[in-house]
Amino acid sequence: MRFCKIVVAITVAALLALAYWQPFAEEIHAESVAKIFDDKGHGSAVYIGKGYFVSAAHVVGQEPVVNLLLTDGRKIKGDVLWSNTRYDIALVKSGPLLNVEASRLSCTVPAVGDPIYAKGNPANLDFISVYGRIAGKERSAGLWKSVVITDIATVPGQSGGPVFDQHGRVIGITVGVMLAPSGFTRSIVGIGYVVPGRAICELMARV
């Protein structure tokens, strides 16, 4: 009887895990993610259609034109239309793009507990997906006027990349990571800062 209970418990746990992750398997918009790069470093961006990419202001810096690497290997140029350092969001415009799937920007603020996944280019890895949940409500934090907190492990290179909900909509842009003391140094912990879609839409006058 005990064995049966254990089997049932394992089966239920497996089904719950499958239910949690399965929606993402059908919704990942791989082609919409881009890498912004130069000889000093790199970050991420997301294509939202009609030649427009959203990224982080600190990723584009003061450059009027940036280099973008698409998932199919194409390298293109993009003009920085504007950059808002208070929100750490920038809008980039390229020429017409063929065979690139655009992601939908959701003008909302995700709720605590919502399942999410982020895509970007952490460290020396390109176009990586990481999964987690919204861990904290919208707030001002440090240099950022409006961010929500995630439990996703976030590292340099992911900044500017999209955070998706389970329906494949962009609900925010990754802008930073929490640093915590660790002995005599500061180490990265599994907490990320994300500018919510509503704030991005307000900057784009879409709300």
What name is given to the CATH topology of the largest domain? Thrombin, subunit H
Strand content: over 45%
Mean pLDDT: 85
Annotation field: number of helices: 3
Counted up, domains total: 2
Q: What is the name of the CATH superfamily of the largest domain?
A: Trypsin-like serine proteases
CATH architecture of the largest domain, by name, is Beta Barrel
Structural class: alpha+beta
Write the layout of secondary structure elements.
Blueprint: H1 2-25, E1 33-38, E2 41-49, E3 52-55, H2 57-60, E4 65-70, E5 75-84, E6 89-93, E7 115-120, E8 128-141, E9 144-150, E10 162-165, E11 170-182, E12 185-196, H3 197-203
Antiparallel strand pairs: 1-2, 1-4, 2-3, 3-6, 4-5, 5-6, 7-8, 7-10, 8-9, 9-12, 10-11, 11-12
Question: What does this entry show, briefly?
Answer:
This protein is an alpha+beta fold and 207 residues long.
Structure description:
This protein is of the alpha+beta class and 207 residues long. The protein folds into 2 domains: 31-93, Trypsin-like serine proteases (Thrombin, subunit H, Beta Barrel); 104-203, Beta Barrel (Thrombin, subunit H). Helix content is 17%, strand content 46%. The chain contains 3 helices and 12 strands. It has helices at 2-25, 57-60, 197-203, and strands at 33-38, 41-49, 52-55, 65-70, 75-84, 89-93, 115-120, 128-141, 144-150, 162-165, 170-182, 185-196. Strands 1-2-3-6-5-4 form a 6-stranded antiparallel barrel. A hairpin with a 2-residue loop joins strand 8 (128-141) and strand 9. The protein is globular.
